[in-house]
Specification:
Structural class: alpha+beta
Shape: extended
Oligomer: single chain
Largest sheet: 3 strands, antiparallel
Helix content: 40-55%
Distance between the termini: 50 Å
Number of helices: 5
Radius of gyration: 19 Å
Length: 116
């Protein structure tokens, strides 16, 4: 006995629909992650903006999904504000990303190799 496909299953067979759905789902994930972490740590938009040194409007736009593009420096600041480290990994190679302040008070990206 063959079970008929749901409307969603039928739509997912359409490559154009599937691609649009997958893109939207990826965008949703970051905003959902931010909401979950902020609620779990009981952090307000105002407090996160202050801790991460990012404008409240950027935090709100990322949280709402209105902004789905994030600068690496802002991602690092948000991660650090919650006590996370941002690590890139390929095979056994691991690189930790940080934002550092130079002697002339400029911010720049720092990459540190770490052991796996």
């Amino acid at each position: 006995m063959n079970k008929s496909l749901s409307t969603f299953e039928r739509k997912m067979k359409n490559p154009k629909f599937k691609k649009a759905f997958d893109e939207g789902y990826k965008k949703l994930l970051f905003s959902e992650l931010m909401i979950s972490i902020m609620e779990g740590d009981d952090v307000s938009i105002r407090n996160l903006a202050k801790e991460a040194d990012i404008s409240k409007s950027v935090i709100q736009n990322l949280r709402s999904g209105k902004q789905h593009d994030i600068k690496v420096s802002n991602l690092i600041k948000i991660a650090h504000a919650f006590g996370y480290k941002l690590i890139l990994q390929r095979g056994n190679e691991r690189l930790m990303l940080n934002e550092v302040t130079t002697k002339d008070s400029k911010k720049q990206l720092s990459v540190e190799a770490i052991s796996a």
